[in-house]
Amino acid sequence: MPKKTPSIESNRSKTILITIYLCFVFILARLFYWQIIKGQELRDKATSQLYRLEKIIPQQGHLLASDSFPLSLDYTYYTLSFYKPNFKQELSEVLSEIEKIKPTFATENARILEIYDNPAQKWVEFKSQFSREEMQSLASIPGLDFTLKQARFYPENDLAKNIIVNLEKYYQRKISGRIGFIRSIVDGVGENLLTRKNWQKNEVDGENIQLSLNRKVQLLAESTIKKSIDTYQADSASVIIISPQSGEILAIASAEASPSALITKIPNISNLFEPGSIFKPLTMASALDSGSIDLDFICQKCDQPRIIGQYTINNWNGEFHPNSTLKEIIKNSDNIGMSYIIEKMGQKTFLDYFHRLKLDQKTGVELSGESISPLKDYWSEIDLATASFGQGFAVNQLQMIQAFNTLANDGRLVNLHLTKERQAEISRVFDMEVITEMKDILKYAVENSPVAKLKAKDLEVCAKSGTAQVAVGGEYTDSNTVGSYIGFSPCENPKYTMIVTINNPKTSQWGSSTAAPIWFEIAQNLEFLL
Amino acid sequence: MLNRILVAIALALFVFRIAFSLYYSRQIVAENQIYTELSKKYTDLKYENENLEINYAQKNAVNRIESF
After folding, report:
1. Distance from the CA of A505 to the CA of which of A236, A273, A419, B66 falls in 20 to 30 A?
2. Would residue B68 count as lying in a domain?
3. How near does any CA of chain B get to the CA of A157, in Å?
4. How many angstroms separate the CA of residue A218 from the nearest CA in chain B?
5. A382: burial class by Cβ within 10 Å (0-12, 13-18, 19+)?
6. How many Cβ contacts (< 8 angstroms) between chains A and B?
7. Residue A255: which of A223, A280, A283 has the closest Cα?
């Protein structure tokens, strides 16, 4: 055998050495690729498999009625999804399993099942809601996936629904609470492991909010006002009932012949109206309190219409009442008498009381959507005269009852509110002496007017009716009116103050024939509830 | 002599490490089980409480009353 030459051996060892070097370089290159280039991505992937970040959903707060009954609650349910690649049974078999629990499942979700038939569609979610027990009995079927969800539940159904939804929006932050997080290490099957590396930020549950709304009074108000729409063929009607001393709103309801699609709309605060004659007691109290007129005021010029420039002020029924006293002016709802009273008071004093009664500002109630009308800058003689009987300016229903309530609350204006936690702000507007006289006048007016027959014998009421014409195209018409009735009962230490307004009633245009019967019907039942 | 002492300490530490691991890993597993069970119990009770609240509210709602 020929002996290998040293050069051949040297070449062979060089080749082996180069191959080893190349392999080494290749390994280094791969290591560089996995550890440097792909390193961060792989580290992130490993961390995401090792750690799990979970949200802790807080318990939402509830709105509670005055008796602490929940007006809103939460309930948990599950929605079902199909994931085709995980299916191990035929769709029909899976559906029959589901229909053992939910017989209407296929019919409820017919459209979604049609979409699922498309071979390209791998995943669908159904709208049916499953309870926890139902979920647990179906969870073992491969391909079925359940998602936990929460929804709001309103035990009183539609009762004060717009108020509750509006309040939930107003107090959203307080009710929702704060979401918590858990970052923990998980084992191979995805269960949390207790380790010192776990990190948790606790959730903060939402707060409950105690309202002043009385469920029974609210139900009474809502049912009566709904019924009145048909009875008086009106476009809409509203009512507010409050506690005179604390300013707590006990019920706030409205009904419309064609209900608004906006669920959070509250006509009691968003709709403005000219108050009409229900404003007269406030004008009179302001005049008495400012000393512009005395208790023995007599209207000597009330025997004829009053002419101011090109305008004529007349009474609602065209009748005149010469030498009327204050009691008779309110009883007869005398526009002419009121125009002379405001003349004695003057614009400055009138606007000062208007401001003190907070009729030029929002009530600040805990609801969104309150409207107010800005007062005009220039007041002519006729503007002032018509303002005395509540025409020529607009307020919302809540502003009006807040102002009128000063007569019930011994001359003190108390801010109206819906939540128990809000402290009432109280400011004095009228002297006690004026209030005593005004109560006497209002009581006399009720007992000596046609509305007295609506009143139960033992019911003591201090109230005033009003009918305001609605300006259409810049002119007042008799065909479109707002009837209203406002008052409190009993006259001393009243238990409630209530306002009822009815828009465009077709059966009668007068507040005394439409709003007053509604007021007394509610008042009659309130005796048993408050 | 010093070497023997060092070996003995090393062995003792090794044995202690194993015993410590065995003891506390069993503890951790037991605690974990309790935690998982309590979590499940909490979820069950929360769900039951929610149902009871809803049942109570439905039974005592005034809006079911037709008239006064």
Report:
1. B66
2. no
3. 7
4. 10
5. middle
6. 50
7. A223
CA distance A192 to A182: 10
User: Would you place residue A374 in the very low, low, confident or very high pLDDT band (cuts 50, 70, 90)?
Assistant: confident
In a domain, B65, yes or no: no
The residue segments making up the domain with residue B9 are 2-60
| A181-240 tens-digit pLDDT | 988 888 777 777 777 888 889 999 999 999 999 999 999 999 999 999 999 999 999 999
Task: Please report, for residues A132, A180, A336, B45, the alpha-carbon distance to residue B50 in angstroms, rounded to integers and kept in the order given.
Answer: 12, 20, 63, 8
- Those residues whose C-beta lies under 8 Å from the C-beta of residue A369, and which sit 6 or more positions away, are A166, A264, A265, A266, A269, A270
The answer to whether A78 and A127 have CB atoms below 8 angstroms apart is no
**A109 contacts A91 by C-beta, under 8 angstroms:** no
A69/B60 Cβ within 8 A: yes
| Nearest chain B residue to A223, by CA | B67
State both tokens at A117.
């038939």
Sign of CA dihedral A152, A153, A156, A159: positive
Measured CA to CA, the distance from residue A415 to residue A426 in angstroms comes to 7
Residues from A contacting B (CB-CB < 8 Å) are 69-70, 73-76, 132, 153, 155-159, 191-194, 215-216, 219-220, 223, 525, 528
How is residue B56 written in tokens? 């109570």
Neighbours of B5 (CB within 10 A): 9
Distance of residue A164 Cα from the nearest chain B Cα, in angstroms: 15
Name the residue among A69, A75, A219 with its Cβ closest to that of B54. A75
Closest by Cβ to A194, choosing from B32, B54, B68: B32
Q: Do B31 and A156 touch (CB under 8 A)?
A: no
For residue A387, count CB atoms less than 10 angstroms from its CB and return exposed for 0-12, middle for 13-18, buried for 19 or more: buried
Could you tell me if residue B26 is inside a domain? yes
ipTM value greater than 0.90 = no
- Look up residue A136 and give its amino acid: Q
Distance between first and last Cα of chain B:
101
At residue A54, the pLDDT reads 83
Number of domains comprising chain B: 1
Q: How many Å apart are CA A483 and CA A511, to the nearest integer? A: 4
Residue B67 within any structural domain of the chain: no
**A305: preceding bond cis by omega (within 30 degrees):** no
Best CA proximity match to A76, nearest among B40, B43, B39:
B43
For chain A, list the domains and their CATH numbers: 50-72+155-211 (3.90.1310.10), 75-153 (no CATH), 215-529 (3.40.710.10)
Residue matched to tokens 């406030």: A282
Average pLDDT, chain A: 91
Which ranges of A359-396 does DSSP label H, i.e. alpha helix? 381-387
Q: Which of A57, A64, A76, A222 to mutate to test the interface with B (most CBs of B within 10 A)?
A: A76
Phi-psi group of A504: left, alpha or beta (phi > 0 → left; psi -120 to 50 → alpha; rest → beta): left
3-state SS, A392-443, equals CCCEEHHHHHHHHHHHHCCCEEECCECECCCCCCEEECCCHHHHHHHHHHHH
Locate all alpha helices (DSSP H) within A33-90, ordered by sequence: 39-50
pLDDT at A273: 92
- Specify burial of residue B16 (Cβ count, 10 A radius: 0-12, 13-18, 19+): exposed
Chain B nearest CA to A133, separation (Å): 10
